[in-house]
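Before the break, one more example. Copy the sequence into your notebook; we will annotate it together after we see the structure.
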Amino acid sequence: MTTASLRPILILLVCIANTSIHAQTVTLGGTIRDSYSVSPVESIRVDISQTSDPGKLYTVYTSTAGTWSYSFLSTSAGRTDEVPFAFDLQQNFPNPFNPSTTIYFSVPWNGPVMVLVHNILGQLIDSRTYSLVPGGYSVQWTGKGAAGPLFYTVQSGGRSLTKKMIQLDGGNGGGLGNVMLVGGFAPVLRKSAATDFSVMVSKLGYEPDSITVSAVNNSAINFSLTTVHRRTFVFDLHNDIAEYMIDGYQLGIRHVSNQSDIPRFLDGGIDGQMIVLWTDSSTSPTTPYQRTIQMYDTCIAQFNRNSATIARATTSAEIQSIHAAGKIAAVLCVEGGHAIQEDLNKLINFYKLGARYFTITWNYTLPWATAAADPLSATKGLSAFGRQVIRTADSLGMLVDVSHVGIKTIEDILAVTKNPIIASHSGVRTLRNSTRNLTDDQIRAIAQGGGVIGVVFYTSFLSSSAASSVNIDTVIKHIDYIKNLVGVDHVAIGSDYDGGISAPVGLENVSKLQNLTMALLRKGYSPADVRKVLGENYLRVFKAVCK
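Here is what the structure looks like once it is written out:
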């Protein structure tokens, strides 16, 4: 047993030692772990109530070891005034530390408690005052000031206790954090009145859970909590890793280069991934179709090589089946109309091979469709052949993607298609004036047709600021804008990982996607809305078109 896991037990022993012989202590406790990593989870809120009095809650938080405990005192003659805790300060853990450590203490009375931290010269580094009830507490210290010995002091009720800790590295952290109850105590009416307890556990980012237990000592009320992210079907609309795979990049191996591989897909909780088949028309000007087929063959070979973790899907039913088997559902798509070389049969063959969306242009204008970067974007749209392409995609059950596509071409597509369309990896032009981003009118038109916009992670399309200053909050500004303009049902994510992008701070590669979930929750998005943005909205459109 680790030192950290002993903290609540030490507090509990103090509680028992100070309890009157006329009373009986009922202690509830347990450990809370993450269902995916099986690691203990700290700062989980545990709310306890008697089923006979559900309106009165007793709250405690898990320690750094994921443990919690709460003691209730039942007597044969009514309530007790016995003091359950001593005034005590324990050694911080870990010690030495970098960058943070946890300080444990207990108080036997109500009132203000001051925690102070000084350096070896006696200079005050930080201090905070808390108003507390009797109980055992923890407070986290995040590195602040210079490295070296620090002295932490707890003052309460005219008494003072001090201990030393070693800060291995200096820092500009937050110093003292909020205090959390890790071992609580509450008097309960006489034993004959005792009833069952309801225990509910919760923390931002996790799905809550609860259980009802008997009013007897029980230190094994354990929970395995699942994060909102892991309960969400995460479907990214755009990833360009295939252009590296065709040159030998192995998808099944964890890399320190690039932004994608299967191990990092799993770390990031990816359930569905659109894998893009894109050929650079400047390097393969005469053979883009053949190059795309080679890329397709490479993807299939690597999916087969890693069949325990990934499989190709072409329908929503296959996506669900692959997901149920615990694998990543990889769906292929073709980016850039140059790949069909003005031949509808080639488009049909791409569909037969499993491509389920077709990005009409890349950055270069085609004879039959104008790209967004073209100076004639606003006035030149689809040719007669271009309209045939859209009708063919509709008849096949192939999504039309308008990222990279010119203004008039998008208008023409919306006039021709009978299906919802997508913008797989675009931003909001109002927030970042780039031809690659969508105007408010375009966003409204896509939404009115039932489609979705996958917000891109490319810093250049998110902000005009330096890439180092673009972060998750910048991505959320684009998500928020679309949500507020047309509703949460029409926004998704289209990272563009491995498409030559610089990614936002906090979303550097596919393993970081859970950070976006947490940021959305902190922003006030409900778990249901998070699930829509991260996958359900796109799945809805995919199911409607790709039959």
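Residues 427 and 437 are 5 Å apart (CA to CA). The longest helix spans residues 527-545. Try to locate both features in your own notes.
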